[in-house]
């Protein structure tokens, strides 16, 4: 028939099974444009592809087809509000995929960075990729693991609730200025925050960007009374300004490093880069 497609041809245009088309017809979503009364063969018109595309897209988004079944036959494709809702859901799906891709990249970067340093002795240099740290002031003990674990998880949950993507890597950040006692922050890493510029000031002011650069590092096997400030002052140059990251929690670290804490020091750090 000149203006119609057989059910097989119509299904092949979207690489689906003809049984799927029969199902969509049965639940009232996509009826054939024409049914031959003698043969009972089903035929579809090319313009019905838009309806089929909406159905298939809803399936990809995980939307139950019974929700579409509340509309009269194919009228749901004419509902602007419905299509706007599904467009928004599609955008969220895209963001979720992009976030998943960033997590995969993060895992790869972590493994690549940590592999050369399984048992490094003394101070060594290593280049670390750009990182975003979410920080908050910390007044507790640097050796109280129970307190650290509780605060770290609270901070993790908070950033997650704010729409950021935290990862289970973090610790303490000591900011030195001359001979004064350092200020202490708790930090954990978040994946590249695409919406950082749009974030509330209370969020953006606590995001710290560390660009790709070389850090001076030292692996320490901690004890219950390790003086982290003294360790930094003893093993690293006493420059006017510097920060030291004490990595208490490291995601995807090698098994042989589980009993070690790496200190990463950046000399001459002038200001936080938000």
What does this structure look like?
The chain has 274 residues and is of the alpha+beta class. 35% of the residues lie in helices and 24% in strands. It contains 8 helices and 11 strands. The radius of gyration is 28 Å and the shape is elongated.
Concise synopsis of the structure shown:
By secondary structure, the chain is α+β, with helices and mostly antiparallel strands. It is built from eight helices and eleven strands.
What layout of secondary structure does this protein have?
Elements: E1 5-6, H1 7-12, H2 18-26, E2 34-35, E3 42-44, H3 49-61, H4 65-68, H5 80-114, E4 124-128, E5 131-137, H6 145-161, E6 166-177, E7 183-190, H7 201-204, E8 207-210, E9 213-220, H8 228-235, E10 241-249, E11 261-267
Antiparallel strand pairs: 1-3, 2-3, 4-9, 5-7, 5-8, 6-7, 6-10, 9-11, 10-11
Rg over CA atoms, rounded to whole Å, is 28 Å
Low-confidence stretches: 270-274
Q: Quick check: average pLDDT? A: 82
This entry's quaternary arrangement is single chain
* Structural class label: alpha+beta
Counting DSSP H or I runs of 4 or more residues, the number of helices is 8
Percent helix among the residues?
25-40%
**Beta-strand share of residues:** 15-25%
Strands ordered across the widest β-sheet: 4-9-11-10-6-7-5-8
Q: What is the CA–CA distance across the termini?
A: 65 Å
Number of strands: 11
